[in-house]
Amino acid sequence: MPMTRKKENNLLLHADILNILYEHRRFVAKIYRDIMGFYNISHIGLSIVNPAHELVVFSTTPNIEYNLISNQLWTQDCCFNPSIGQSNKFSWWGDNTSNLSDNQQNHLNKIKLLNNNFTLGMSIARNLQGFDLIYSFASKSKQPDLQAYYATNLPRLIEIGDFFYKSMRPLYLPYSPSFEPPDVRALLSLVHQKHYLRLVVDNESCHV
Predict the structure, then answer these.
(1) Global pTM?
(2) Both ends of the chain: CA-CA distance in Å?
(3) What is the Cα–Cα distance from 77 to 117, expressed in whole angstroms?
(4) Domain CATH for 169
(5) What is the mean pLDDT of residues 18-38?
(6) Which run of H or E residues covers position 11?
(7) pLDDT digits (tens, 9 = 90+) for 82-114
(8) Which of 58, 59, 65, 184 gives 20 to 30 Å between its CA and that of 81?
(9) Residue 178 is assigned to a structural domain of this protein
């Protein structure tokens, strides 16, 4: 059923956000197969906030976003709120939650990490042409110094997020009829790399 619009912290959930989240899960899973295995990624999510501050989400693990919305934790979470953290930098899941109670923080950790056997999660916010794009990733890897590993591979994770956004953009267009989202060429201008998503083309570029 369509969800009632709700605005908090200057964010507005799309009226049909939960249906959108699950309606496209098969297509999302198909795109994920092109990403799966790179950098130990076990989950990817994409939140798009248009210039009217309306939020739409696509995810390979939709139970995360569903439970965050249902438990009223979404406004305090870096997977949804672009004001948390710095643009084009990692926001580590579990950080920037000082405004939550201990019970809320534990609940957040259970929804995002424990229930899915993830060992680490992170989000990257990007702003372009009045849109906020938030790429979220999680891993089940148990390798040591995992946070440092991802910190050194931030540009590669941004490239993966851009690839995912490029793939999902046609599905998103009907949900933001008044605002045209940025195309991938505009995103490329923000990434100082010679080859776009070279890890998909050349497996040698990816070290796990």
Answers:
(1) 0.85
(2) 41
(3) 19
(4) 3.30.450.80
(5) 91
(6) strand 11-13
(7) 988 888 999 999 887 767 788 888 999 999 999
(8) 184
(9) yes
